[in-house]
Design brief:
Number of domains of chain A: 2
Number of strands of chain A: 26
Distance between the termini of chain A: 33 Å
Number of domains of chain B: 1
Oligomer: heterodimer
Number of strands of chain B: 1
Mean pLDDT of chain A: 90
Largest interface: A-B, 69 and 46 residues
Low-confidence stretches of chain B: none
Number of helices of chain B: 1
Shape of chain A: rod-shaped
Low-confidence stretches of chain A: 11-15
Distance between the termini of chain B: 50 Å
Radius of gyration of chain B: 21 Å
Amino acid sequence: MSAGPPAPTPPSVSGVKSMNCPNCGAALTVRTFQNAVTVACSHCHSILDAKDPKLQILQKFEVARGEDEPLIPLGTRGTIRGVQYEVVGFERRTIHVDGAPYSWHEYLLFNPYKGFRYLTEYNGHWNDVSVLKSLPTVNDTEPPSVTYLGEKFKHFQTAQASTSFVLGEFPWQVRVGETADVTDYVHPPRVLSSEKMHREVTWSMGEYMSGHDVWKAFGLAGDPPQPVGVYENQPSPLAANVVSIWSLFAIFVLVLLVVAMLVSTFTQRKVVFEGTYQFTPTITGEPSFVTDPFELPGRTSDVEVRTVANVSNSWIYLNYALINQDSGQAYDFGREVSYYYGYDSDGRWSEGGTSDTVVVPTVPAGNYYLRIEPESQTGGMRTTVYRVIVTRDVPVNSLYLFALLALLIPAAAITWRSISFEHRRWAESDYAPSGDDE
Amino acid sequence: MMKAYLIYGIAVLSLLVLAEYRGWSFSQINQVKNVPKSVRDNPGSYRSVYGFYHHYTGGK
């Protein structure tokens, strides 16, 4: 591992050093004092040897005019982690994935006492990057991972990056076209990167920054570019919420269970009427009849009407009306009890059952009776015997299922969005599911 | 977001308790007002709105 850029040498005098480009004569400003190893002329794009008093031209590269303007101009000063840095260098680096180029920008920052650090920018995503002073531990895992200061970083991507544009000064021998094997390991909001070049490996750590924080740090005018997509170490805005929301969901489910137990304990479940009847469809005459009156006591509450019939490969349909004999208010509903069974090529089958339950909601206390009008299939002399049981104030299980679903939906939606965020993150990695490469 | 979910969850549970207390259910019930007292003597004079239900005849 290399130490990256060499440790800075504090200046003997404050200020900047001015020189002229030997190629085009343009004025050059050197801000990193004797730390500068190469300087790139912003006019003719010559890379010069800053250690040579004659500024030997090391390389010239061709770019279109205004091809890549830094979003933070060279010489801009800003405060990062309480330390003032100045932007002294700018480079564009490019990788190719499946033949498509992906470029990001690196801003070299300098403080004469603290040294160098970087800001990187890709599609509006920013990282504050500094070179590591100790090596991470490479874990023997698949996929690969490294551990640094107790944090485990997962391998994200390995690619060959080439420098495609430079401006300003650098404390190393920068060249356009030079390549390095770059490997990124992520543990949002941090990323560990190793760069291997000429047998040297440099490790650095980046921490995700929002464009607004960068703009604020450097006092830049306007707004930063909007981030596009999800970046490799971009912290998920929902990851912390997922754990919290499921914790809260668990508490709500506990409360739901307590409510269910309390309701089960305190509901009356009072059987207020029971009657057994029979119906033969071939008998002529009015099939409807009314029951004896019964009292529904207590507060306004629900009423359960349960029907049990001896149907066997047959059905009975009952038109019910629960009528308040004082007010004339009726609750009208129809219920069917049907039960069919048999054998076929798939074996034994059955459909339906011999009982049915319905809960009539919000019935005030009072004296009621049931009007019952049975119907059944015609043909034969089949007599259906059925029993009607009316119970006051019963728990309604479907309400709990509804409440559970209502509580579950937001938690599931946030989890799904979080998973989707991670899916979009890893779609840009070496582990993207096939078809996700963009 | 957590605060919103907390308020939402409390609202759901409160609604559940209210629904249980008031006896709400999802059953399809038709309410009819002013049923004449004569129905007790002549049940056939009342016509249920569910009287024309299409009956299931069963079988596989």
